């Protein structure tokens, strides 16, 4: 049975949380998840079954990593980021198991590069973000997409490679055009203004 510790952190008995990780109050780490050394998780995060958080990764407050999400170092996630089931944030631009002379690579043989995810953004199930891309604030990456280029704030991207097919608001719903480069959220009524390929809140 999983019970909160004295500092308000809940860790399942089968989870592996390094003693050098920093876990914010109210955060829950579920079965078989692994949190590596020097990782920093904010308050009230939810780390799903089998999820992985690499050394030195930073998560803001209120983040959700769904089951088997893989967040490799040195990724940086803002507040309120959602990473869907089995999504992957990579960290190696030129992956190889061995060096050109056939020796097994070690940490000294490559430089990790991280994915950056802005506040409120969501990464769909089984999507892959190829480092060092940045996914902007409140953007939405569709399930199964492969992100190889930076994603603007509020963009909706899908496909392989991912491309923008629309805009979304803070509620995650696709925005509808109102005219004069104004977009409206069908759920909240909030308006956004498009200019030069970017969307800003009105």
Number of domain modules = 2
**What is the subunit organization of this protein?**
single chain
The rounded Rg comes to 18 Å
Q: Any idea of the CATH class of the largest domain? A: Mainly Beta
**Which structural class is indicated by helix and strand composition?**
mainly beta
Query: Could you state the order of secondary-structure elements as H and E?
Result: EEEEEEEEEEEEEEEEEEEEEEEEEE
Mean pLDDT equals 95
Find the count of extended strands (DSSP E, 2+ residues): 26
Give a short overview:
The protein has strands spanning 10-11, 16-17, 22-23, 28-29, 34-35, 40-41, 46-47, 52-53, 58-59, 64-65, 70-71, 76-77, 82-83, 88-89, 116-117, 122-123, 128-129, 134-135, 140-141, 146-147, 155-158, 163-167, 176-179, 182-184, 191-195, 198-201. With 202 residues, the protein is mainly beta. The chain folds into two domains: 10-168, Hexapeptide repeat proteins (UDP N-Acetylglucosamine Acyltransferase, domain 1); 169-202, no CATH class.
């Amino acid at each position: 049975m999983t019970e909160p510790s004295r500092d308000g952190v809940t860790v399942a008995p089968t989870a592996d949380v390094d003693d050098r990780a920093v876990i914010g109050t109210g955060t829950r780490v579920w079965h078989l998840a692994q949190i590596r050394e020097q990782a920093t998780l904010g308050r009230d995060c939810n780390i799903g079954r089998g999820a992985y958080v690499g050394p030195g990764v930073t998560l803001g407050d209120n983040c959700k990593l769904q089951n088997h999400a893989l967040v490799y170092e040195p990724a940086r996630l803002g507040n309120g980021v959602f990473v869907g089931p089995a999504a992957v944030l990579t960290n190696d631009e030129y992956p190889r198991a061995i060096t050109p002379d056939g020796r097994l690579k070690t940490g000294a043989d490559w430089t990790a590069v991280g994915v950056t995810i802005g506040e409120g953004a969501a990464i769909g199930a089984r999507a892959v973000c190829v480092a060092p891309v940045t996914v902007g604030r409140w953007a939405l990456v569709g399930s199964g997409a492969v992100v190889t280029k930076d994603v603007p704030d509020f963009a909706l991207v899908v496909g392989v490679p991912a491309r923008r097919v629309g805009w979304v608001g803070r509620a995650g719903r696709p925005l509808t055009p109102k005219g004069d480069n104004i977009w409206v959220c069908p759920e909240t009524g909030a308006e956004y203004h498009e200019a030069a390929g970017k969307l800003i809140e009105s």
